[in-house]
Design brief:
Blueprint lengths: L3 E4 L3 H12 L4 E5 L22 E4 L6 H11 L3 H8 L1 E2 L4 E4 L1 H14 L3 E5 L13 E3 L7 H11 L7 E4 L2 E3 L9 E2 L15 E6 L1 H13 L21 H6 L27 E7 L6 E4 L8 H8 L10 E3 L2 E4 L5 H4 L5 E2 L2 E6 L9 H19 L12 H12 L4 E3 L2 E2 L27 H24 L2 H4 L2
Parallel strand pairs: 1-2, 1-7, 2-6, 7-17
Antiparallel strand pairs: 3-5, 4-5, 8-15, 9-13, 9-14, 10-11, 11-12, 12-13, 16-17, 18-19
Helix pairs in contact: 1-10, 2-10, 2-12, 3-4
Length: 467
């Protein structure tokens, strides 16, 4: 039996190895710890949690990450099994005993007859004799392997401080205040001339925003991040504000080439723009708002912007050292590298954010690799499921934009309802129509129920019966 090699024993690699083994195929899991440690890891254990011990909400009916939990459970996830076996009191969230969790994953993998664990570093690209490989090395991929991937893909390996701007759910934006228009009505590639959402600020609103950005509480860098410099072309918005109170008005908030149809006689003092972030048009990225502000400060400050007073954020901003692929360009729909299809990628290196999301892509990579080894179709769940929505986003659902200087707009993201195809909520009973939060809750629940129905159909397809 030809083995499938997995490089990296984090959550994604551990899950991939488990799925392969459970499918009856042989898996060889390569983990460089403790032979070579990273700056973030403290133990040699597999699936070590290096930051929080929380997997976030476990409510499958009302929360997208909770839905992902439930889908993974139904797909036989090792990570969810170990998480459930080591859970701690955390209200509606799933928090785990980090040592017990890692020990459980390590023990189960070590005991599986179809899994071999090899403690060694895979420096550079895997040997040509490895016909099927899953690379799940995470955001701290070793320099040698990073360089090899960069040379193979031709893409810039993003190991500087990558600045991430918040993403807003479109249906939470007040279109009585904002409007759609491109600067000077110029249609970009594939655009119409009305490709940005524009939020107008008068002088007092702009000054208040600057004050809040300067005073807002910022997060601190980890020790192992401090040696990596900012990328000058993508500075945090609060750093730009520190360079002068008018800097933003002459940068991402410049009020030129735009006319407010709600008040065409009055020229805005500054304008915040949002750019469409996914093909469905449900998520919009705040242009130029990459930030190191703490999450609470972000939510408070960015809701000061006219039109965003009730904004719901699919993702808040951040800034950290990261290594991830421009996946929509370099990966195919089965998570294979287009330049060398024997290599499949999983986890954070593919451009997902979060423990559970990383493990979910490991689950999919493992299943796809096992199916390919058996000569079965490498099909993924439909995009109406959480698993399918994640794969779809990183392999084609993201709407790519060229930001100049070799930078691309694809950024890591958590699972959220904006990644799912829209759905109409159930018809109201007795003529009563839900409104506001009730309507949004009904829509979320409809998406979640549809997802589990569609996942059940995918899991019961003939190709999965042998698993």
């Amino acid at each position: 039996m030809t083995p499938i090699h997995i490089v990296g024993g984090g959550l994604a690699g551990s899950e991939a190895a488990w799925q392969i083994a459970q499918a009856g195929e042989r898996a060889i899991l390569h983990e460089m710890r403790p032979v070579r440690m990273t700056e973030a890891h403290k133990t040699p254990g597999l699936a070590e949690l290096v930051c929080s011990n929380s997997f976030r909400s476990d409510d499958w009916l009302n929360n997208a990450v909770g839905l992902l939990h439930e889908e993974m459970r139904r797909a036989g996830s090792l990570i969810m099994t170990a998480g459930d076996a080591n859970k701690l009191p955390a209200g509606g969230a799933l928090a785990v005993d980090r040592e017990g969790f890692s020990d459980e994953v390590t023990r189960r993998l070590d005991a599986h007859a179809n899994i071999e664990i090899v403690r060694e570093e895979v420096a550079g690209l895997p040997p040509p004799g490895w016909d099927s490989v899953i690379i799940a090395t995470g955001p701290l991929t070793s320099p040698a392997l990073s360089a090899a991937i960069q040379n193979l893909t031709g893409e810039k390996e993003l190991a500087f401080f990558d600045a991430i701007a918040p993403i807003v759910h479109k249906d939470s934006i007040d279109f009585g205040t904002v409007w759609l228009q491109s600067r000077y009505d110029k249609p970009g590639p594939g655009g119409t001339g009305a490709d940005y959402i524009n939020c107008p600020l008068d002088k007092s609103q702009y000054e208040a925003l600057i004050d809040a950005l300067l005073a807002g509480e910022k997060t601190e860098f980890h020790d192992w991040e401090k040696s990596t410099p900012y990328f000058e072309g993508c500075l945090p918005i609060e750093v730009m504000a520190e360079r002068g109170r008018e800097t933003l008005r002459h940068g991402p908030l410049k009020p030129v080439g735009l006319t407010n149809p709600h008040n065409p006689e009055e020229k805005p003092y500054a304008i915040v723009q949002l750019r469409q972030d996914n093909a469905l048009g449900t998520l919009w990225n705040m242009v130029g708002f990459q930030t190191k502000l703490k999450y609470g400060a972000q939510s408070e400050i960015f809701r000061m912007i006219p039109g965003l007073e009730k904004a719901r954020f699919a993702r808040l901003g951040g800034l950290h050292r990261n290594t991830f692929l421009n996946s929509p360009k370099v990966l195919d729909g089965a998570l294979r590298l287009k330049a060398e299809p024997r290599l499949r990628f999983a986890g954070q290196i593919t451009g997902v954010e979060g423990y559970v999301e990383s493990a979910a892509i490991g689950l999919m990579a493992g299943r796809l690799a096992a199916a390919e080894e058996r000569g079965e179709p490498c099909d993924t769940p439909p995009p109406t499921t959480a698993l399918g929505a994640l794969v779809n986003h990183i392999t084609g659902g993201h709407l790519e934009a060229d930001l100049g200087e070799g930078r691309r707009s694809f950024q890591p993201m958590n699972i959220n309802y904006g990644l799912f195809p829209p759905i109409d909520p159930p018809k109201p009973q007795a003529g009563r129509r839900p409104r506001g939060k009730e309507k949004a809750r009904a829509r979320r629940q409809a998406i979640s129920r549809r997802a589990l129905d569609d996942l059940a159909a995918w899991l019961s397809r003939p190709a999965a019966a042998a698993e």
